[in-house]
Amino acid sequence: MKSSAPGKVILFGEHAVVYNRPALAVPVTQVHADVEVLDSPRKGVWINAPDINLHAELNSLPSDHPIASVILKVFQRFDISQPPALNVSITSTIPVASGLGSGAAVSIAIIRSLSSFLIHPLPDKEINSIAYEIEKLHHGTPSGIDNTVITYSRPVYFIKGEPIETFTVGKPFTIVIGDTGISAPTKESVGDVRRLWLHDQSNFENIFDEIAQIVLIARRSIESGKPEMLGELMDQNHAFLQSLTVSSPELDKLVEAARNAGALGAKLSGGGRGGNMIALTEQPTAESVANALMSAGAKRTIITEIN
Ligand code: PMV
After folding, report:
1. Residues 139 and 201 in one domain
2. Which of 156, 155, 192, 184 is closest to 249 using CA atoms?
3. Which of 31, 145, 208, 241 to mutate to test the pocket of ligand 1 (most atoms within 8 A of CB)?
4. Do 257 and 268 contact (CB within 8 A), yes or no?
5. What confidence tens digit (pLDDT) does each residue in 242-290 have?
6. Which residue has the CA at smallest separation from atom 14 of ligand 1?
7. Which of 146, 179, 192, 235 is catalytic?
8. What are the pLDDT digits (tens) for 204-250?
9. Is the terminal CB of the chain with fewer CB neighbours within 10 Å at N or C?
10. Do 51 and 122 lie in a common domain?
């Protein structure tokens, strides 16, 4: 039983989304996690993840291991105490710890393929809620945006705890993703923002409100087929993220380089401090913006069309 899950990027609203403001995220289908579950001739549940050099039997891993914990949750969901002999093969082209949702995508592909293998394919709603439990195990207090956009594989307007709203893209647009190559745990930047917020709630609440306004205007621009308006909104959102202290010299350098190379706007995406930034470009300039990002120190770029 095979299953695939895409990567994702947050377009607008990261961090503020933890404080119940809306955020927009879209799937990135150029990168994906793929899982295949098959009967095994050997007793036990064998996990093969060559990308991370993992070849192990489930019981030999700690129960809080990111992959073991997903498999155990699925068995638990079906009250399976004696799992059948099986092989779980996991591969992924999503860069790890860079804000593209690699952990959530692997979880979701496992849940989907394993539940189908067990002849109980789970509905998206349940896949999403199991994936969220796993995100909580590993990331502290995640908003749930990653697992949601990846489970539904559609653009999502996300507010924590509210029913999922997908939205339509009036006119396709091009995003260039630039990876600083710096792995920065989201848990830390979220924790730092929390500490700053505790000291100065009114200032931070104001910033979150400003970001929420940007998200609303961005959604309207995307739906009404005016994506060119997103450039300026990205620049504004990036400035607010800088004041939340979650940017970094490397991210700022890439954002600047993208703008200088003709991008309509750019911002960091995700937890910040490292990981990714995104730039809005006209389709013909995407390649030169990607080249400029590489020259400015990006380790990798992805050009993706949002439609
Ligand atoms: O670093 P990423 O792409 O997983 O995104 C984190 C987004 C935050 O808003 C900073 C945290 C969250 O849980 O929503």
Report:
1. no
2. 184
3. 145
4. no
5. 999 999 999 999 999 999 999 999 999 999 999 999 999 999 999 999 9
6. 143
7. 146
8. 999 999 999 999 999 999 999 999 999 999 999 999 999 999 999 99
9. C
10. yes
The tokens describing 134, both together, are 């796993």
Calpha distance 77→65 (Å, rounded): 18
116 in a structural domain:
yes
Q: So what's the pLDDT on residue 139?
A: 77
> 117 C-alpha vs ligand 1 centroid, how far in Å?
31
Examine residue 70 and state whether it is found in any structural domain, yes or no.
yes
Q: Is the CB of 9 under 6 A from ligand 1?
A: no
Choose one of 158, 189, 204: the last residue of a domain: 158
Ligand 1: centre distance to CA 60 (Å)? 31
Number of domains in the chain: 2
In a domain, 163, yes or no: no
Other C-beta atoms closer than 10 Å to the C-beta of 296 total 18
Residues ≥6 apart with Cβ < 8 Å to 202: none
- The model's confidence at residue 140, banded by pLDDT at 50, 70 and 90, is confident
Same domain, 79 and 36: yes
Q: How far is the CA of 128 from the centre of ligand 1 (A)?
A: 16
Is 53 among the domain residues? yes
* Domain enclosing residue 18, as ranges: 2-158
pLDDT reported for residue 187: 86
Contact by Cβ (8 Å): 7, 102: yes
Is 39 considered catalytic here? Answer: no
Q: Does the beta carbon of 274 lie inside 6 Å of ligand 1?
A: no
Q: What is the mean pLDDT of the chain?
A: 95
User: Do 221 and 104 lie in a common domain?
Assistant: no
- CATH number, residue 271: 3.30.70.890
Nearest atom within ligand 1 for CA of residue 100: 3
